[in-house]
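Example record

Each entry pairs one chain with its bound ligand, protoporphyrin IX containing FE.
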Amino acid sequence: MAEAVMKTHDLDFCSRPSLCGARRLSYNASDLSFSPYSDYWREMRKLCVVHLFSRVQKYSPIQEDEVARLVQKICRLSIDSKPVNLSEAMMCLSSSIICRVDFGKRYDDEGAERSRFDGLLKESEAMLSCFSFSDYFPFMGWIDRFTGFFSRLEKTSKELDIFYQQLINEHLDPNRQKPEQEDILDVLLRIQKDRDFPFDLTIDHIKAILMDVFIAGTDTTAATVIWAMCFLMKNPKCLKKTQAEVRDLIGTKGFVNEEDIQGLTYLKAVIKETFRLQTTVPLLVPRETLRTCSVGGYQVPAKTLVYVNAWAIGRDPEAWENPEEFSPERFIGSSIDYKGLNFELIPFGAGRRVCPGMHMGVAAVELALANLLYKFDWEMSTGMNKKDIDFDVVPGLTTQKKMLLSLSLGRLMIKHCTVMVINLLLNLSSLYFLQFEPHSIIMLINTMHV
Ligand code: HEM
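C-alpha coordinates for the complex follow.
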Protein backbone atom coordinates (compact mmCIF):
# COMPACT_ATOMS: atom_id res chain seq x y z
CA MET A 1 0.00 0.00 0.00
CA ALA A 2 2.63 2.49 1.11
CA GLU A 3 4.45 1.86 -2.18
CA ALA A 4 1.30 2.56 -4.18
CA VAL A 5 0.64 5.72 -2.23
CA MET A 6 4.20 6.83 -2.68
CA LYS A 7 3.83 6.45 -6.40
CA THR A 8 0.50 8.18 -6.35
CA HIS A 9 2.11 11.04 -4.57
CA ASP A 10 4.95 11.14 -7.09
CA LEU A 11 2.52 11.70 -9.91
CA ASP A 12 2.15 15.20 -11.13
CA PHE A 13 -1.39 15.48 -9.88
CA CYS A 14 -3.23 18.71 -9.60
CA SER A 15 -6.52 19.81 -8.13
CA ARG A 16 -9.24 19.52 -10.67
CA PRO A 17 -10.33 23.09 -11.23
CA SER A 18 -13.97 22.32 -11.94
CA LEU A 19 -14.39 20.99 -8.41
CA CYS A 20 -12.37 23.69 -6.74
CA GLY A 21 -14.51 25.65 -4.28
CA ALA A 22 -13.52 29.04 -5.56
CA ARG A 23 -14.36 28.03 -9.07
CA ARG A 24 -17.64 26.25 -8.49
CA LEU A 25 -19.10 29.10 -6.49
CA SER A 26 -17.28 31.14 -9.03
CA TYR A 27 -16.67 34.82 -9.24
CA ASN A 28 -17.05 34.66 -12.99
CA ALA A 29 -13.51 33.64 -12.63
CA SER A 30 -11.95 32.42 -15.81
CA ASP A 31 -8.64 33.51 -14.38
CA LEU A 32 -9.28 31.63 -11.13
CA SER A 33 -9.00 28.34 -12.97
CA PHE A 34 -5.32 29.07 -13.32
CA SER A 35 -3.15 26.24 -14.44
CA PRO A 36 -2.02 24.41 -11.31
CA TYR A 37 1.68 24.67 -11.93
CA SER A 38 1.62 28.13 -13.39
CA ASP A 39 3.64 30.85 -11.72
CA TYR A 40 0.35 32.45 -10.81
CA TRP A 41 -0.88 29.38 -8.95
CA ARG A 42 2.46 29.02 -7.16
CA GLU A 43 2.43 32.64 -6.06
CA MET A 44 -1.16 32.42 -4.86
CA ARG A 45 -0.35 29.34 -2.79
CA LYS A 46 2.79 31.02 -1.43
CA LEU A 47 0.76 34.05 -0.45
CA CYS A 48 -1.62 31.88 1.57
CA VAL A 49 1.09 29.82 3.23
CA VAL A 50 3.51 32.66 4.00
CA HIS A 51 1.19 35.53 4.80
CA LEU A 52 -1.95 33.89 6.10
CA PHE A 53 -1.15 30.62 7.84
CA SER A 54 2.50 30.68 8.81
CA ARG A 55 2.14 32.34 12.21
CA VAL A 56 -0.37 30.15 13.96
CA GLN A 57 0.53 31.66 17.35
CA LYS A 58 -0.93 34.91 16.07
CA TYR A 59 -4.35 33.30 16.15
CA SER A 60 -3.90 31.63 19.56
CA PRO A 61 -5.64 34.38 21.58
CA ILE A 62 -8.69 34.10 19.32
CA GLN A 63 -8.77 30.33 19.63
CA GLU A 64 -8.33 30.45 23.39
CA ASP A 65 -11.02 33.09 23.79
CA GLU A 66 -13.51 31.08 21.71
CA VAL A 67 -12.77 27.86 23.60
CA ALA A 68 -13.26 29.73 26.90
CA ARG A 69 -16.66 30.93 25.65
CA LEU A 70 -17.54 27.36 24.70
CA VAL A 71 -16.68 26.18 28.21
CA GLN A 72 -18.88 28.90 29.70
CA LYS A 73 -21.76 27.93 27.46
CA ILE A 74 -21.50 24.27 28.47
CA CYS A 75 -21.36 25.28 32.14
CA ARG A 76 -24.61 27.19 31.72
CA LEU A 77 -26.23 24.11 30.18
CA SER A 78 -24.93 21.93 32.99
CA ILE A 79 -26.74 24.02 35.56
CA ASP A 80 -30.01 23.40 33.68
CA SER A 81 -29.08 19.66 33.57
CA LYS A 82 -29.57 19.76 29.84
CA PRO A 83 -27.65 17.40 27.56
CA VAL A 84 -25.03 19.19 25.54
CA ASN A 85 -25.41 19.13 21.78
CA LEU A 86 -21.69 18.87 21.11
CA SER A 87 -22.09 18.77 17.32
CA GLU A 88 -23.79 22.15 17.33
CA ALA A 89 -21.40 23.58 19.92
CA MET A 90 -18.35 22.55 17.90
CA MET A 91 -19.72 23.98 14.64
CA CYS A 92 -20.38 27.20 16.49
CA LEU A 93 -16.85 27.19 17.92
CA SER A 94 -15.04 26.56 14.65
CA SER A 95 -17.14 28.97 12.60
CA SER A 96 -16.60 31.67 15.24
CA ILE A 97 -12.84 31.10 15.09
CA ILE A 98 -12.81 31.23 11.29
CA CYS A 99 -14.95 34.40 11.17
CA ARG A 100 -12.60 36.19 13.54
CA VAL A 101 -9.45 34.98 11.80
CA ASP A 102 -10.84 35.51 8.31
CA PHE A 103 -12.51 38.89 8.67
CA GLY A 104 -12.31 39.93 12.30
CA LYS A 105 -16.01 39.52 13.14
CA ARG A 106 -17.71 37.79 16.00
CA TYR A 107 -21.35 37.00 15.44
CA ASP A 108 -23.63 36.66 18.42
CA ASP A 109 -24.51 32.97 18.86
CA GLU A 110 -28.25 33.59 18.50
CA GLY A 111 -28.34 36.76 16.40
CA ALA A 112 -29.76 37.33 12.91
CA GLU A 113 -26.30 37.90 11.44
CA ARG A 114 -25.22 34.55 12.79
CA SER A 115 -28.16 32.73 11.17
CA ARG A 116 -27.40 34.45 7.88
CA PHE A 117 -23.77 33.39 8.13
CA ASP A 118 -24.62 29.80 9.14
CA GLY A 119 -27.20 29.57 6.35
CA LEU A 120 -24.62 30.70 3.80
CA LEU A 121 -22.06 28.25 5.11
CA LYS A 122 -24.51 25.33 4.93
CA GLU A 123 -25.69 26.23 1.44
CA SER A 124 -22.11 26.66 0.15
CA GLU A 125 -21.13 23.28 1.53
CA ALA A 126 -24.21 21.68 -0.01
CA MET A 127 -23.36 23.21 -3.38
CA LEU A 128 -19.77 22.04 -3.19
CA SER A 129 -20.60 18.46 -2.32
CA CYS A 130 -23.70 17.73 -4.41
CA PHE A 131 -23.44 15.87 -7.68
CA SER A 132 -23.47 17.79 -10.93
CA PHE A 133 -23.33 16.43 -14.45
CA SER A 134 -21.04 19.24 -15.61
CA ASP A 135 -18.27 17.95 -13.34
CA TYR A 136 -18.32 14.33 -14.43
CA PHE A 137 -19.93 14.31 -17.89
CA PRO A 138 -19.34 17.81 -19.31
CA PHE A 139 -21.30 16.99 -22.46
CA MET A 140 -24.38 16.39 -20.28
CA GLY A 141 -23.97 19.66 -18.42
CA TRP A 142 -27.26 20.92 -19.86
CA ILE A 143 -29.08 18.57 -17.44
CA ASP A 144 -27.86 20.74 -14.55
CA ARG A 145 -29.89 23.60 -16.01
CA PHE A 146 -33.06 21.51 -15.96
CA THR A 147 -32.53 20.17 -12.45
CA GLY A 148 -32.22 23.73 -11.14
CA PHE A 149 -28.63 23.13 -10.07
CA PHE A 150 -27.26 26.12 -12.01
CA SER A 151 -29.86 28.56 -10.73
CA ARG A 152 -29.27 27.44 -7.14
CA LEU A 153 -25.52 27.79 -7.68
CA GLU A 154 -25.97 31.25 -9.14
CA LYS A 155 -28.20 32.33 -6.25
CA THR A 156 -25.68 31.12 -3.66
CA SER A 157 -22.79 32.76 -5.53
CA LYS A 158 -24.65 36.08 -5.57
CA GLU A 159 -25.44 35.91 -1.87
CA LEU A 160 -21.83 35.06 -1.07
CA ASP A 161 -20.64 37.87 -3.28
CA ILE A 162 -22.85 40.37 -1.45
CA PHE A 163 -21.65 39.00 1.89
CA TYR A 164 -17.95 39.33 0.99
CA GLN A 165 -18.43 42.70 -0.67
CA GLN A 166 -20.02 44.05 2.53
CA LEU A 167 -17.05 42.83 4.54
CA ILE A 168 -14.61 44.35 2.07
CA ASN A 169 -16.46 47.68 2.13
CA GLU A 170 -16.37 47.67 5.94
CA HIS A 171 -12.63 46.95 5.90
CA LEU A 172 -11.99 49.72 3.38
CA ASP A 173 -14.06 52.27 5.28
CA PRO A 174 -11.61 55.05 6.27
CA ASN A 175 -13.54 55.55 9.53
CA ARG A 176 -13.13 51.94 10.59
CA GLN A 177 -11.35 51.58 13.89
CA LYS A 178 -7.95 50.02 13.25
CA PRO A 179 -7.94 46.53 14.79
CA GLU A 180 -5.20 45.52 17.23
CA GLN A 181 -4.36 42.64 14.98
CA GLU A 182 -4.88 42.26 11.25
CA ASP A 183 -7.31 39.62 10.09
CA ILE A 184 -6.82 37.69 6.83
CA LEU A 185 -8.93 40.18 4.88
CA ASP A 186 -6.80 43.07 6.21
CA VAL A 187 -3.64 41.26 5.09
CA LEU A 188 -5.02 40.57 1.61
CA LEU A 189 -6.21 44.16 1.12
CA ARG A 190 -2.84 45.46 2.29
CA ILE A 191 -0.99 43.19 -0.15
CA GLN A 192 -3.30 44.38 -2.91
CA LYS A 193 -2.81 48.05 -2.02
CA ASP A 194 0.98 47.77 -1.70
CA ARG A 195 1.12 45.75 -4.92
CA ASP A 196 3.09 43.23 -2.92
CA PHE A 197 2.12 40.38 -5.22
CA PRO A 198 3.84 39.61 -8.53
CA PHE A 199 0.49 39.45 -10.37
CA ASP A 200 -2.68 41.46 -10.37
CA LEU A 201 -4.49 40.54 -7.15
CA THR A 202 -8.13 41.40 -7.79
CA ILE A 203 -11.05 41.71 -5.40
CA ASP A 204 -12.43 38.50 -6.90
CA HIS A 205 -9.24 36.67 -5.95
CA ILE A 206 -9.54 37.99 -2.44
CA LYS A 207 -13.13 36.82 -2.22
CA ALA A 208 -12.12 33.40 -3.51
CA ILE A 209 -9.37 33.03 -0.90
CA LEU A 210 -11.73 34.13 1.88
CA MET A 211 -14.22 31.56 0.75
CA ASP A 212 -11.71 28.72 0.56
CA VAL A 213 -10.58 29.44 4.09
CA PHE A 214 -14.12 29.91 5.36
CA ILE A 215 -15.33 26.60 3.93
CA ALA A 216 -12.17 24.53 4.36
CA GLY A 217 -11.59 25.51 7.98
CA THR A 218 -15.02 25.19 9.58
CA ASP A 219 -16.44 21.70 9.10
CA THR A 220 -13.09 19.96 9.25
CA THR A 221 -12.10 21.27 12.66
CA ALA A 222 -15.55 20.70 14.20
CA ALA A 223 -15.86 17.18 12.79
CA THR A 224 -12.46 16.13 14.11
CA VAL A 225 -13.37 17.05 17.71
CA ILE A 226 -16.71 15.28 17.40
CA TRP A 227 -15.14 12.06 16.08
CA ALA A 228 -12.50 12.17 18.81
CA MET A 229 -15.25 12.48 21.44
CA CYS A 230 -17.14 9.57 19.83
CA PHE A 231 -14.07 7.34 20.00
CA LEU A 232 -13.37 8.35 23.58
CA MET A 233 -16.95 7.71 24.71
CA LYS A 234 -16.80 4.29 23.10
CA ASN A 235 -13.44 3.59 24.78
CA PRO A 236 -13.82 4.67 28.43
CA LYS A 237 -10.28 3.55 29.33
CA CYS A 238 -8.82 5.92 26.74
CA LEU A 239 -11.18 8.65 27.93
CA LYS A 240 -9.97 8.26 31.52
CA LYS A 241 -6.33 8.14 30.44
CA THR A 242 -6.61 11.30 28.34
CA GLN A 243 -8.51 13.11 31.06
CA ALA A 244 -5.99 12.06 33.73
CA GLU A 245 -3.15 13.34 31.58
CA VAL A 246 -4.77 16.73 31.06
CA ARG A 247 -5.86 17.14 34.69
CA ASP A 248 -2.46 16.06 36.06
CA LEU A 249 -0.68 18.58 33.89
CA ILE A 250 -3.03 21.51 34.39
CA GLY A 251 -3.90 20.97 38.04
CA THR A 252 -6.01 23.84 39.36
CA LYS A 253 -4.93 26.37 36.74
CA GLY A 254 -8.46 26.49 35.37
CA PHE A 255 -7.85 26.46 31.62
CA VAL A 256 -5.65 24.61 29.14
CA ASN A 257 -3.68 27.15 27.13
CA GLU A 258 -1.96 26.62 23.84
CA GLU A 259 1.49 26.37 25.40
CA ASP A 260 0.31 23.51 27.68
CA ILE A 261 -0.54 21.30 24.73
CA GLN A 262 3.06 20.23 24.09
CA GLY A 263 2.96 18.30 27.35
CA LEU A 264 -0.13 16.30 26.34
CA THR A 265 1.40 13.32 24.54
CA TYR A 266 -1.56 11.00 24.94
CA LEU A 267 -4.10 13.61 23.83
CA LYS A 268 -2.03 14.16 20.70
CA ALA A 269 -2.01 10.40 20.08
CA VAL A 270 -5.81 10.33 20.48
CA ILE A 271 -6.11 13.02 17.80
CA LYS A 272 -3.78 11.17 15.42
CA GLU A 273 -5.74 7.97 15.94
CA THR A 274 -8.95 9.87 15.20
CA PHE A 275 -7.43 11.21 11.98
CA ARG A 276 -6.39 7.68 11.02
CA LEU A 277 -9.76 6.02 11.61
CA GLN A 278 -12.14 8.78 10.64
CA THR A 279 -10.32 11.02 8.18
CA THR A 280 -12.32 14.22 7.91
CA VAL A 281 -11.72 14.73 4.17
CA PRO A 282 -11.82 11.07 3.11
CA LEU A 283 -11.04 11.55 -0.58
CA LEU A 284 -8.90 14.70 -0.27
CA VAL A 285 -9.26 17.27 -3.05
CA PRO A 286 -9.84 15.54 -6.41
CA ARG A 287 -6.85 15.50 -8.74
CA GLU A 288 -6.40 15.19 -12.47
CA THR A 289 -3.37 13.55 -14.07
CA LEU A 290 -1.33 15.91 -16.21
CA ARG A 291 0.14 13.09 -18.26
CA THR A 292 -0.07 9.33 -18.58
CA CYS A 293 1.55 7.64 -15.64
CA SER A 294 1.71 4.31 -13.90
CA VAL A 295 0.48 3.65 -10.36
CA GLY A 296 1.00 0.24 -8.75
CA GLY A 297 1.24 -1.36 -12.20
CA TYR A 298 -1.87 0.40 -13.58
CA GLN A 299 -1.63 2.78 -16.50
CA VAL A 300 -3.49 6.00 -15.76
CA PRO A 301 -4.13 8.11 -18.89
CA ALA A 302 -3.59 11.85 -18.90
CA LYS A 303 -6.55 14.00 -17.78
CA THR A 304 -8.00 11.24 -15.59
CA LEU A 305 -9.91 12.34 -12.50
CA VAL A 306 -8.21 10.68 -9.54
CA TYR A 307 -9.39 10.38 -5.97
CA VAL A 308 -6.91 9.47 -3.23
CA ASN A 309 -8.78 7.44 -0.64
CA ALA A 310 -7.16 8.68 2.59
CA TRP A 311 -9.87 6.93 4.61
CA ALA A 312 -8.99 3.48 3.20
CA ILE A 313 -5.26 4.17 3.55
CA GLY A 314 -5.78 4.87 7.26
CA ARG A 315 -7.39 1.43 7.68
CA ASP A 316 -5.10 -0.56 5.41
CA PRO A 317 -4.07 -3.79 7.19
CA GLU A 318 -0.76 -3.73 5.30
CA ALA A 319 0.13 -0.47 6.96
CA TRP A 320 -1.56 -0.81 10.36
CA GLU A 321 -1.79 -3.56 12.94
CA ASN A 322 -5.41 -4.18 14.01
CA PRO A 323 -6.51 -1.30 11.79
CA GLU A 324 -10.13 -1.26 12.95
CA GLU A 325 -9.17 -0.91 16.61
CA PHE A 326 -9.04 2.51 18.28
CA SER A 327 -5.63 2.45 19.92
CA PRO A 328 -3.89 5.81 20.45
CA GLU A 329 -1.01 3.84 22.02
CA ARG A 330 0.18 2.91 18.52
CA PHE A 331 1.41 6.50 18.13
CA ILE A 332 3.27 6.69 21.43
CA GLY A 333 6.96 6.55 20.60
CA SER A 334 6.17 6.41 16.88
CA SER A 335 7.50 8.99 14.44
CA ILE A 336 4.43 8.72 12.20
CA ASP A 337 2.80 12.10 11.84
CA TYR A 338 0.01 13.65 9.78
CA LYS A 339 2.10 16.36 8.15
CA GLY A 340 2.19 14.72 4.74
CA LEU A 341 5.51 12.88 4.98
CA ASN A 342 4.13 9.52 6.14
CA PHE A 343 1.86 8.38 3.38
CA GLU A 344 -0.03 5.92 5.56
CA LEU A 345 -1.54 8.88 7.46
CA ILE A 346 -2.61 11.76 5.25
CA PRO A 347 -5.64 13.50 6.81
CA PHE A 348 -4.33 16.83 5.49
CA GLY A 349 -3.25 15.47 2.12
CA ALA A 350 0.35 15.65 0.98
CA GLY A 351 2.53 17.40 -1.54
CA ARG A 352 1.82 20.68 -3.21
CA ARG A 353 -1.84 20.77 -2.23
CA VAL A 354 -1.36 19.80 1.41
CA CYS A 355 -3.78 21.70 3.68
CA PRO A 356 -2.32 25.15 4.36
CA GLY A 357 -4.46 25.50 7.51
CA MET A 358 -3.12 22.27 9.06
CA HIS A 359 -1.37 23.86 12.04
CA MET A 360 -4.24 26.16 12.76
CA GLY A 361 -6.75 23.32 12.49
CA VAL A 362 -4.76 21.02 14.76
CA ALA A 363 -4.25 23.80 17.32
CA ALA A 364 -8.01 24.41 17.50
CA VAL A 365 -8.80 20.69 17.80
CA GLU A 366 -6.20 20.17 20.55
CA LEU A 367 -7.30 23.20 22.52
CA ALA A 368 -11.01 22.36 22.32
CA LEU A 369 -10.60 18.69 23.15
CA ALA A 370 -8.18 19.33 26.01
CA ASN A 371 -10.52 21.83 27.65
CA LEU A 372 -13.64 19.70 27.14
CA LEU A 373 -11.89 16.86 28.95
CA TYR A 374 -10.25 19.00 31.60
CA LYS A 375 -13.41 20.81 32.62
CA PHE A 376 -16.15 18.22 32.30
CA ASP A 377 -16.94 14.58 33.03
CA TRP A 378 -18.90 13.28 30.08
CA GLU A 379 -21.62 10.64 30.16
CA MET A 380 -24.02 9.16 27.65
CA SER A 381 -27.39 10.96 27.62
CA THR A 382 -30.24 9.25 29.50
CA GLY A 383 -31.39 6.08 27.78
CA MET A 384 -28.29 5.92 25.58
CA ASN A 385 -25.51 3.41 25.71
CA LYS A 386 -22.00 3.72 24.33
CA LYS A 387 -23.00 1.08 21.77
CA ASP A 388 -25.49 3.61 20.40
CA ILE A 389 -22.71 5.87 19.18
CA ASP A 390 -22.39 5.26 15.48
CA PHE A 391 -20.04 6.51 12.81
CA ASP A 392 -22.61 7.08 10.06
CA VAL A 393 -21.88 10.14 7.97
CA VAL A 394 -23.79 12.62 5.85
CA PRO A 395 -22.68 12.39 2.19
CA GLY A 396 -20.34 15.26 1.32
CA LEU A 397 -16.74 16.37 0.94
CA THR A 398 -16.13 16.03 4.66
CA THR A 399 -17.26 13.27 7.01
CA GLN A 400 -19.92 14.88 9.20
CA LYS A 401 -21.63 12.71 11.79
CA LYS A 402 -25.18 11.96 10.65
CA MET A 403 -26.73 11.79 14.14
CA LEU A 404 -25.80 14.80 16.23
CA LEU A 405 -23.63 13.95 19.21
CA SER A 406 -25.45 14.84 22.40
CA LEU A 407 -23.83 14.05 25.73
CA SER A 408 -24.63 14.67 29.39
CA LEU A 409 -22.38 15.94 32.09
CA GLY A 410 -21.62 13.65 35.03
CA ARG A 411 -23.95 13.97 38.03
CA LEU A 412 -21.09 14.93 40.31
CA MET A 413 -20.25 17.77 37.99
CA ILE A 414 -23.83 19.09 37.98
CA LYS A 415 -23.96 18.74 41.78
CA HIS A 416 -20.68 20.58 42.01
CA CYS A 417 -21.95 23.42 39.81
CA THR A 418 -25.27 23.60 41.71
CA VAL A 419 -23.56 23.74 45.12
CA MET A 420 -21.40 26.53 43.85
CA VAL A 421 -24.44 28.44 42.60
CA ILE A 422 -26.18 28.10 45.98
CA ASN A 423 -23.08 29.18 47.90
CA LEU A 424 -22.63 32.10 45.67
CA LEU A 425 -26.29 33.12 45.92
CA LEU A 426 -26.09 32.94 49.73
CA ASN A 427 -23.01 35.09 49.75
CA LEU A 428 -24.40 37.55 47.29
CA SER A 429 -27.86 37.76 48.92
CA SER A 430 -26.23 39.37 51.96
CA LEU A 431 -25.19 42.12 49.60
CA TYR A 432 -28.86 42.78 48.79
CA PHE A 433 -28.14 46.31 47.80
CA LEU A 434 -26.26 45.01 44.80
CA GLN A 435 -28.35 44.85 41.67
CA PHE A 436 -27.56 41.73 39.73
CA GLU A 437 -29.15 39.48 37.19
CA PRO A 438 -29.10 35.69 37.61
CA HIS A 439 -27.30 35.51 34.28
CA SER A 440 -24.36 37.47 35.62
CA ILE A 441 -24.01 35.06 38.55
CA ILE A 442 -23.83 32.16 36.19
CA MET A 443 -21.23 33.97 34.15
CA LEU A 444 -19.25 34.49 37.33
CA ILE A 445 -19.44 30.81 38.23
CA ASN A 446 -18.38 29.89 34.76
CA THR A 447 -15.18 31.79 35.11
CA MET A 448 -14.32 29.69 38.16
CA HIS A 449 -12.66 26.32 37.83
CA VAL A 450 -15.32 23.58 38.15
C1 HEM B 1 -8.65 19.42 11.39
C2 HEM B 1 -8.83 20.33 10.50
C3 HEM B 1 -8.53 20.22 9.02
C4 HEM B 1 -8.42 19.12 8.22
C5 HEM B 1 -8.55 17.66 8.60
C6 HEM B 1 -8.13 19.60 6.87
C7 HEM B 1 -7.93 18.78 5.78
C8 HEM B 1 -7.67 19.24 4.50
C9 HEM B 1 -7.42 18.41 3.36
C10 HEM B 1 -7.41 16.89 3.38
C11 HEM B 1 -7.23 19.20 2.30
C12 HEM B 1 -6.93 18.74 0.86
C13 HEM B 1 -5.44 18.43 0.73
C14 HEM B 1 -5.08 17.58 -0.45
O1 HEM B 1 -5.96 17.28 -1.27
O2 HEM B 1 -3.91 17.18 -0.58
C15 HEM B 1 -7.36 20.57 2.74
C16 HEM B 1 -7.24 21.68 1.93
C17 HEM B 1 -7.36 22.98 2.38
N1 HEM B 1 -7.50 23.38 3.69
FE1 HEM B 1 -7.67 22.18 5.30
N2 HEM B 1 -8.09 20.97 6.89
C18 HEM B 1 -8.31 21.39 8.19
C19 HEM B 1 -8.33 22.70 8.66
C20 HEM B 1 -8.16 23.80 7.87
C21 HEM B 1 -8.19 25.17 8.35
C22 HEM B 1 -8.39 25.57 9.81
C23 HEM B 1 -8.01 25.97 7.26
C24 HEM B 1 -7.95 27.47 7.17
C25 HEM B 1 -8.02 28.29 8.13
C26 HEM B 1 -7.88 25.11 6.10
C27 HEM B 1 -7.70 25.57 4.81
C28 HEM B 1 -7.56 24.76 3.71
C29 HEM B 1 -7.47 25.27 2.34
C30 HEM B 1 -7.51 26.74 1.92
C31 HEM B 1 -7.33 24.15 1.51
C32 HEM B 1 -7.22 24.13 -0.01
C33 HEM B 1 -5.74 24.15 -0.40
C34 HEM B 1 -5.52 24.05 -1.91
O3 HEM B 1 -6.49 23.89 -2.64
O4 HEM B 1 -4.34 24.12 -2.33
N3 HEM B 1 -7.96 23.82 6.50
N4 HEM B 1 -7.61 20.58 4.09
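Residues 1-23, 26-35, 430-450 have pLDDT under 50 and may be disordered.
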